[in-house]
TrEMBL record:
GO MF, any single term: oxidoreductase activity
Record family assignment: Belongs to the short-chain dehydrogenases/reductases (SDR) family.
This protein's UniProt keywords: Oxidoreductase
Source taxon at top rank: Eukaryota
Ketoreductase domain location: 31-189
Name of the molecule in the record: Ketoreductase domain-containing protein
Keyword RNA-binding among record annotations: no
UniProt keyword NADP present: no
InterPro entries named among the record's database cross-references: KR_dom, NAD(P)-bd_dom_sf, SDR_fam
């Protein structure tokens, strides 16, 4: 019990914890966060949420047009660095850029991801090079992010790392094989890292969202419905995750990320937070 008490104490950074939240309700005041794939979709929504809660955010994204635009739109607390997560040295540089700019890294969100080629539907026709491409971004990119976040968080003795899995990491057949495999792997990666990093006061968790219309999901689903507008495709995606008229929104993921990143989750590690309105709780999917 004494060892557990010590570990519990080590998780809290003491500024903005459960008992001592900022008076204005902001939950990440003074924190520095790096978000891969932060130029668009769920990463961008999470960057917005983190900034609203007082954080400084580094947007690390391969898209060197959209990235700076997104950072500019988010205001002076956001800064863009170009980063291709398949290149370990660029991930290392992005982490170092965050530390150089802000003196530390408190939160690392390994969120960059792609669906990859929509199909072939049969694994018998799968091109293994395409499989490798998706794994290099979705899985190896997350491993690189964890590795380099740990490099700076271990000496600091604290930190919160997040990764994005998916309901495609819980139920098979929702996406192409490489995507499904990469997303099933994320909770395993998170548990493996959590088992070690808990000794250093570092927590690591993942989030598994339901379908949300973003450039990635719209691009994927549009391949099956040629001729539909983006709005029509977005309605189809919303319909997949609909529950009693509600559907998953990027803000739902951002709020989940805020909780896991904050000291309110100071004793939560190795967890997969499913944000799906019940999607994976029942068997009879409508498609
Ligand atoms: P998105 O396309 O809006 O954003 C993905 C971002 O990742 C883009 O800005 C893109 O430039 C960036 N990116 C792609 N490859 C990269 C690389 N090699 N290095 C750095 N950045 C790279 O898509 P999104 O829906 O916001 O996806 C974010 C994450 O959420 C992904 O991991 C995805 O698998 C996951 N997810 C999405 C949904 C959904 O329905 N949208 C559901 C569950 C999980």
């Amino acid at each position: 019990p004494a060892a557990f008490r010590r570990r519990l104490a080590s998780y809290s950074t003491g500024d903005g914890g459960v008992a001592g939240g900022a008076a204005d309700g902001k939950r990440l005041v003074g924190k520095v966060a790096l978000i891969t794939g932060g130029a668009s979709g769920l990463g961008k929504a999470t960057a917005h949420e983190f900034i609203q809660n007082g954080a400084q955010v580094i947007i690390a994204d391969i898209d060197s047009e959209l990235g700076p635009q997104t950072a500019q739109g988010l205001g002076p607390s956001a800064h863009y660095v170009r980063c291709d997560v398949t290149d370990e040295s660029q991930v290392a540089d992005a982490v170092d850029a965050a530390v150089a700019r802000h003196g530390k890294l408190d939160i690392m969100y390994n969120n960059a991801g792609v669906t990859g080629p929509a199909y072939p539907p049969s694994i018998a026709d799968l091109e293994l090079d395409k499989f490798d491409e998706v794994m290099r971004i979705n899985l190896r990119g997350a491993v690189a992010g964890i590795k380099h976040a740990a490099r700076v968080m271990i000496p600091a003795g604290s930190g919160s790392i997040l990764c994005t899995s998916s309901i495609s990491g819980i139920l098979a057949g929702l996406g192409p094989h490489p995507y499904t495999v990469s997303k099933f792997a994320i909770p395993g990666l998170v548990k493996s890292a959590a088992a070690e990093l808990c000794r250093h006061g570092i927590r690591i968790n993942c989030i598994s969202p339901a379908p949300i219309p973003t450039p990635m999901s719209v691009g994927q689903i549009a391949q099956f419905y040629p001729g539909l507008t983006q709005e029509q495709v977005a309605r189809i995606i919303n319909g997949l995750g609909e529950l009693k008229g509600a559907h998953c929104e990027d803000a739902d993921v951002a709020k989940a990320a805020l909780y896991l990143a904050s000291d309110e989750a100071k004793y939560v590690t190795g967890h997969n937070l499913v944000v799906d309105g019940g999607f994976t709780c029942y068997k009879n999917l409508s498609f």
